[in-house]
Write a structure and sequence with these properties.
alpha/beta; 22% strand; nucleotide-binding; decarboxylase; metal ion binding; Dna Ligase, domain 1
């Protein structure tokens, strides 16, 4: 594919380097590794004799690596920048991303200033000294709580300290002794998002889907791909991430971590100039993984137009980080459980030392819907006899699911009819929004707003109950391409026949599915059948529901034959 050799600077035990090597192998591209451990994760999957047992902080070791490759890249940004600049200026070996980019990003405070200078939304930060007086002044300016952070060598939660009050700052003074610091305003956020952005030598060429990360103890535990947010939020996050990377130079993939705050804005938390933990899912769920994208980008190889998409429109994934605990064996129990759960792929990094809080591997679950992926995750975690301090079922599964069904009605008098649909969705554990009252005649602006944003809000089906003139289902269907199911509601006159005729007689081009008068149960079941086309979990539950109905009828038939029709009515 390419006879150039890529040199990779990695930290001892670097799993990112390992997965970069694996991606390069498939393209028959040679790699050489700089790592202090002769049996590091990356070296385990590459038997080359050209590897160097040295440090990414050692000037001479980095120069030695450059003599054995054509392109130098990183799996961690905290490297000796003087060595990279020396190699870059020499011109014989390319360095990606550029030393200037790495230098800016490795100092998180400089990174904030750089992003802000180029018009990117960031969190207010101030540089401070490691003194109680500076911390006091930071508290006066930023308010409590605020974050006290190390400017360099901070990753996986290291180097972050929450300051709740001046009194709580005393313990941070010893933790951050002889460390350059900055203070950051506390941001109340709803979700943490991340985007992997790909940049070649000419500039940004695209980004992967927006994902949602779930953190505990400042370490990423779970990644939901795609993020459980609206289309509008997702597109805004992609735009913010891509714009941020445009202000840097050099090729490769970049991880952009962001906060979704309560007013709906996106704020950048930090940028990483390398493959990112939040992008592990791309190995199984996307056309090209972030690791292959990094290899292609630094070599300036071409990309197909759909490189960063999910494999199909119904591909969903959850990535679970495997974190070592004190007992050292518990994460392996999770792996053994994952072996029998379909759609699960296990990646163990080959790390020897299993210290508490260390990332030892990950599991990626791929499914046809997010609810199916969550169900499989529950099988892996909750069906095992595991009690992990770093995994909490409440922490993992308490996050609100994005609604995929919207239930609306023309009047509050329709509520008794629509309750049956609600019970069905609860029974099937399908997330929904509503019921809400939207009158086609009395709240036309609300109708237009709801219908025009339904797709952006992530709904897959709309159920609309209406009586009398019953214009609501048809009007909604005229403003969205989502499936609309109309429920005729029995009114005070004409027994709902007028509503049935109104809903069923839509003009050509405005399809509305119509169920029997007052039968919102069937509306919900029809919605589930539509959802079940791409959701195996829902389809399985529908099959079970149908079998239970059959069993119920057969039991009634048997009882009727046993006791006779004369006694049946009195012995149901």
């Amino acid at each position: 594919m390419d006879d150039r050799i890529i040199g990779i600077l990695e930290i001892g035990g670097g799993q990112l380097g390992r997965m970069l090597v694996e991606a390069a192998h498939r393209l028959n591209i040679k790699t050489v590794i700089l790592d202090p451990d002769p049996d590091s994760p990356a070296k385990q999957v590459n038997s080359s004799k050209n590897h160097i047992n040295g440090s990414f902080l050692n000037f001479d070791d980095i120069l030695s690596l450059s003599e054995r490759c054509n392109i130098l890249t990183i799996e961690i940004e905290h490297v000796d920048i003087k060595a990279l600049k020396h190699i870059f200026l020499n011109g014989k070996v390319k360095v990606h991303p550029s030393p200037n980019t790495i230098e800016i990003i490795q100092d998180k405070y400089l990174q904030k200033l750089h992003l802000t200078k180029h018009g990117n939304p960031t969190i207010e930060s101030i540089s401070i000294k490691n003194t109680l007086e500076d911390i006091r002044l930071a508290g006066e300016k930023l308010g409590y709580p605020f974050m006290l952070k190390s400017r360099t060598m901070a990753y996986d939660g290291r180097g972050n300290f929450k300051i709740d009050s001046l009194e709580s700052a005393y313990s941070s003074l010893s933790v951050f002794e002889n460390v350059s610091l900055y203070a950051e305003r506390w941001v109340p956020f709803m979700k943490e998002l991340a985007v992997i952005v790909v940049r070649n030598e000419e500039g940004v060429i695209g980004s992967y889907p927006v994902v949602e990360t779930v953190q505990s103890d400042n370490i990423c535990r779970l990644v939901y791909a795609p993020a459980r947010v609206s289309f509008t939020v997702s597109e805004n996050a992609k735009r913010v991430a891509e714009k941020a990377i445009q202000c840097f130079s050099g090729a490769g993939v970049f991880g952009v971590e962001m906060f979704l705050v309560t007013n709906g804005d996106i704020i950048i938390n930090e940028v990483s100039p390398r493959p990112h933990n939040s992008g592990h899912y791309t190995i199984n769920a996307c056309s090209i993984s972030q690791y292959e994208s990094h290899i292609r980008a630094v070599l300036n190889l071409p990309f197909p137009s759909d490189s960063f998409n999910f494999l199909t429109f119904k591909t969903f994934a959850i990535m679970l980080n495997l974190i070592a605990d004190d007992l050292k064996v518990e994460y392996m129990e999770i792996c053994r459980k994952a072996l029998i759960v379909g759609g699960s792929s296990i990646y163990l990094y080959g790390k020897k030392e299993q210290r508490r809080g260390r990332k030892m591997g990950h599991i990626t679950i791929v499914a046809s819907s997010m609810s199916e992926a969550e169900y499989k995750l529950q099988q892996i975690l909750q069906s095992s006899k595991i009690s992990l301090s770093c995994f909490s079922s409440k922490e993992i599964f308490s996050y609100e699911k994005s609604p995929i069904v919207a239930i609306i009605m023309g009047s509050d008098s329709d509520l008794p009819t629509m309750k049956s649909a609600i019970e069905i969705f609860k029974k099937f554990d399908v997330s929904f929004v509503g019921p809400d009252i939207i009158s086609a005649h009395r709240t036309p602006r609300k109708l237009v707003e709801f219908s025009s944003t339904a797709i952006l809000n992530g709904y897959k089906v709309i159920i609309a109950g209406a009586g009398g003139a019953a214009h609501l289902p048809g009007m909604v269907a005229s403003m969205t391409t989502l499936p609309v199911i109309g429920v005729p509601v029995k009114g005070s006159s004409l027994d709902g026949v007028d509503s049935l005729y109104s809903i069923v007689q839509m003009p050509k081009g405005i399809p509305v599915a119509t169920v029997a008068i007052g039968n919102s149960t069937n509306a919900a079941l029809l919605a589930l059948r539509i959802i079940g086309i791409t959701d195996n979990r829902v389809r399985f539950l529908l099959d079970e529901y149908t079998r239970n109905m059959e069993t119920d009828i057969l039991l009634k038939s048997k009882k009727l034959q046993e006791i006779g029709w004369e006694n049946y009515e009195h012995n149901k």
